[in-house]
Amino acid sequence: MNDTAHALSASRTLWELVDRRARLTPALPVLLQDERRLTFGGLRSRAERVAAGLYGMGVRPGTVVAWQLPTRIETAVLSFALARLGAVQSPVNPFYRDREVGFALRESRAEFFAVPGVWRGHDHTEMARRLGAKGVFEAYDDLPDGDPSVLPAPPADGTSVRWIYWTSGTTSDPKGVLHTDRSLIAGGSCLAHALRPRPDDVGSMAFPYAHIGGPDYTVMLLLYGFPAVMFEQFALPDALEGYRRHGVTVAGGSTAFYSMFLAEQRRRPGAKVIPTLRLLAGGGAPKPPEVYHAVVREMGVQLTHGYGMTEVPMITMGDPEDTPENLATTEGRPPAGMRIRIVDGEVRLRGEAVCRGYLDPAQTAAAFDEEGYLRTGDLGRLTGSGHLVLTGRLKDVIIRKGENISAKEIEDLLAAHPRVADAAVIGLPDAERGELVCAVVEPPPGAPGPTLAETVAYLRAAGLSVHKLPERVEVVDALPRNETLRKVLKYKLRERFARPATREP
């Protein structure tokens, strides 16, 4: 990390970081989207005006404001406006629907809720009102506006909880993860330290800004003073024009993104799909070693993969100058300040980037051991060189395209299906998604099990988010169980169905 970035990483709050970067390089761009361009100075000034508008609406330091917005310049501006006020913000994935959104609003006790109106065919405003949300306002093209002279002093304490992020974890209900400005700055510093971006780099954000990766990535931009292109909707090949126009040098997101870029490269083997690209970087889902080797060989760029979670946005990251073996088979090394301990095979963490716990005190008590280390539920080992290798998970959670999916939530919904006696939902390795969702169904005696199309339609009608829907359904006569408590042996199902499906259910 260069001297300037190192000094900026000591900022107490996110707003202090914005202000210090704006003073250093006010005219340099920070966010690019389509034909629009926002500078570091513009980010500070516009966020202050939006903060004043929010203040006029009644938002004060400590007010809980939820927002469910797509990846747009306006979303980042609104988020930093809330940081300027010292409000508590609760970002909600824009693809979530009634079940998850309603839970997040109730548990966070949000006093305001920012939505995009009708977005990608879904009426978020109508959903918010149906859920009885308070203080609903639309924040897409237009944001609240006001005179910054009315604002109170910016927050000076970076260790108070001002962020509530949501993760499904291992249960059917999401968990509210508590973060501070300092924990988010520490996470972004970890990412920046590993990738060592250059002054002429152009990054990209093609993932939901409401994900923990949003502030993680933006902190890196503020530390190093380079811009990133924002993609409201990421789909290839349509998005390639934006990457090429802005000269993106660093792209990525997760295993699914790597596979999509690789597929586009294979359609044009004679020329680089993004001429300026030098590095793919991401995390959030398992990365098969063959994906790393294929990207390097066929795209002619480096690939670095990392390990993070909603509770700790950046734990380890691959170093672009590391060996191919380490980059292909490990999750990289932790930065200074992140301590990793392996206890009975489980990865445990302590450091400034670790969250403060959960909204539910009982969940917090269960998550930390007696020495203050966070129990991740992931299994792994450290190599002699300090690289982390993940070997599995204690938690029964599926990671598809970087998003955690609770198997139990889907199983509970399937239990009410008239043609399902029992069901087990498992994650199967997938080169494009990291993992795919497979529902293994045991039908009642003499009855046929549901097809994939019927299962998807049923779960959608039950309110399950689209990104959690199964891609495979397998029907079995009986689920394998142990002989003591008759628990379903999911490892046997994973072994059986890890090979590609031989038929369409």
From TrEMBL:
<dbReference type="Pfam" id="PF00501">
    <property type="entry name" value="AMP-binding"/>
</dbReference>
<dbReference type="InterPro" id="IPR042099">
    <property type="entry name" value="ANL_N_sf"/>
</dbReference>
<dbReference type="Pfam" id="PF13193">
    <property type="entry name" value="AMP-binding_C"/>
</dbReference>
<dbReference type="GO" id="GO:0031956">
    <property type="term" value="F:medium-chain fatty acid-CoA ligase activity"/>
</dbReference>
<protein>
    <submittedName>
        <fullName>Cyclohex-1-ene-1-carboxylate:CoA ligase</fullName>
    </submittedName>
</protein>
<comment type="similarity">
    <text>Belongs to the ATP-dependent AMP-binding enzyme family.</text>
</comment>
<dbReference type="GO" id="GO:0006631">
    <property type="term" value="P:fatty acid metabolic process"/>
</dbReference>
<dbReference type="InterPro" id="IPR025110">
    <property type="entry name" value="AMP-bd_C"/>
</dbReference>
<feature type="domain" description="AMP-binding enzyme C-terminal">
    <location>
        <begin position="409"/>
        <end position="483"/>
    </location>
</feature>
<dbReference type="InterPro" id="IPR000873">
    <property type="entry name" value="AMP-dep_synth/lig_dom"/>
</dbReference>
<feature type="domain" description="AMP-dependent synthetase/ligase">
    <location>
        <begin position="19"/>
        <end position="359"/>
    </location>
</feature>
<dbReference type="InterPro" id="IPR020845">
    <property type="entry name" value="AMP-binding_CS"/>
</dbReference>
<keyword id="KW-0436">Ligase</keyword>
<dbReference type="InterPro" id="IPR045851">
    <property type="entry name" value="AMP-bd_C_sf"/>
</dbReference>
